[in-house]
Amino acid sequence: MKGGTWYDKMQAVDRRIIYLVLLVVCAASLFIKASIPVNPDTCSADLFHYLMTMPTDKPIIVESDWTLSTRGENSASMEALLRILMRRNVKFVLCCAGDPQAIQVARNTLKQINDERVKNGERRYTKWIDYVDLGVVPDMGSMANAMSTDFRSALKGIKNPNENGEPEAVLNSPVLKDVNAIEDMPLMINVTASATIDMLVQRLSPGKKLVPGEKMKGKIPLACMCTGVMGPQALPYSQAGQVVGLGIGLKGAYDMEYMMEHGLNQPDAKGRMVEYKPDPTPVQGFPGSVNFDRANRYYLTLHSALGLLILFVIVGNVGFYASKASRRAR
Amino acid sequence: MILAAIQTNFWAAAPHSRYCYWMMAAAFLVGMAMLVGCLFAPTRLRKPIVWTVTFLAGFYWVLFYFFPEPISRKPTDIARSGIEGFAFVLADGNAPAATIANSVGAFLFGLGIYSLLRIHTNNVLKKRQNWFFSLMLILSLICMVAYGYGNWWIKQHNPGLIDTQARWLFPNYAFDMMFDGLLQQMDAVMFSLVAFYILSAAYRAFRIRSVESTVLMASALLMMLSLMGAVDFAWSGVLGKLTHGDPTNFLNNFALSSVSNWVKANLQVPSLRALDFGIGLGGLAMALRIWLGLEKGGVTV
To answer: CB pairs below 8 Å between A and B: how many?
Structure first.
């Protein structure tokens, strides 16, 4: 801007320069590896604690409702979740509601974590034995109702390839053969980019935090890992105890990775620890395994982007007020 | 033995049984008759037909939620009264209702594809403005469906294939390139563009001009800083030094995470809950109007 005062210039930075600065700063941040210390959110700690202490003899349901448009947040959450489940040998039922792309994205993430396990000398999670795949459920509302009333009837028509590659009812698989009702399972977790948790809370939530071993007919403890945008909408469920844990956005995913590395109520070498007040029993994470991954890579970028946003808002406002003061003086 | 495999009722015949095939044939005939009936129905009858179907569909769920539910029912139980028998029918009908809803939901995909093809084929045939993009859409659709099914079929018949990329065939590579290489990446790019607009818009428009905008900016700043773990952690360290590590010190209330949690718990969540109540009541009223045929939009044909 030629001939303008400094405060005019502060208010009129070319948008292309803003775009370029954001691009360079975010791209550069992706190449920096840094383990950032955090104070995990209470709802993230609730989720981690539940995942690490729930019984492992029954499967859980993983409903994956996201695509790569929200990769930054949901992918990191899904990866952390799958790592925890596989390391604890928890069997699971994979499904998705609505978006037909979501199930393929979930399968790709599952394959990626499986490949990572094989590379690290760990056992591959096998379809039919360790997990079953329900595919896309176009109307999850009705399906949730049906699962609540009669779990086995609701899933009766769904088949997966068995050990011999022959299509067979998923109910006969080692994953579901001992599950007679939805309340037999310890958790249904929704990794989502939209408001799908609302429908699950309406139909399947026990409405309170169940004590260990307690069951409620047709109900299952719920948890959610959602995007930052959907976080505020899910927060009331966390506060009311309608979900047992909640990971919100990239911060929630990073909290999970941080707790996977440091555990709960476990002091590290510097004496710092993630304190979980509701249950002071130490919970061991997975030190020495791949814990910090995608969320860690993106978290510094989030810092840079938010820092830049704050900086530009300050620059714009300083220019605005300087200009206003100058006009008054004239 | 799996209980679900041996239980049969009106809604669920044993797979591959003669009864099952008879029921399928009957359902097909009834469905076709209803379709033909609807096609030839006088215009004035269409509204009552839509209303009746809507009412019956909704009535099932009303009964399902409000009718007494069978308690501790075992699969071998026989109803002791008509009321209990009706409760059994309602409960047994739930899984088929979900199957019907899922089937109808799946048909919507087909309807969407039909609609897309109709519009864009016309664009191409009549060489309307930007017809080339319509052609690209049709070609992309056909390729994704063809290679998607090819990929699925090959993997169904070669169970270990998915884990061994070296054994992939052309449809597997083509689907991988089209779905993961193109579609998903373009999806991510579209979404990431929002960041550029948010930054530019915040810089140009986010000005402290009033009390309301100051409150908004203060809370936004607080939330953004609390999302930055490094800032939160560093600030907690500063507070730790000021309080000499005393957890009962009043200053600990000013940790970023504590303040942001307070804002979320005491300001944000109650406001959202109030909104949810409003939306819930509005949704209930709208559902009742559609169910009872009072809402014109719900039954317009």
So the answer is: 186
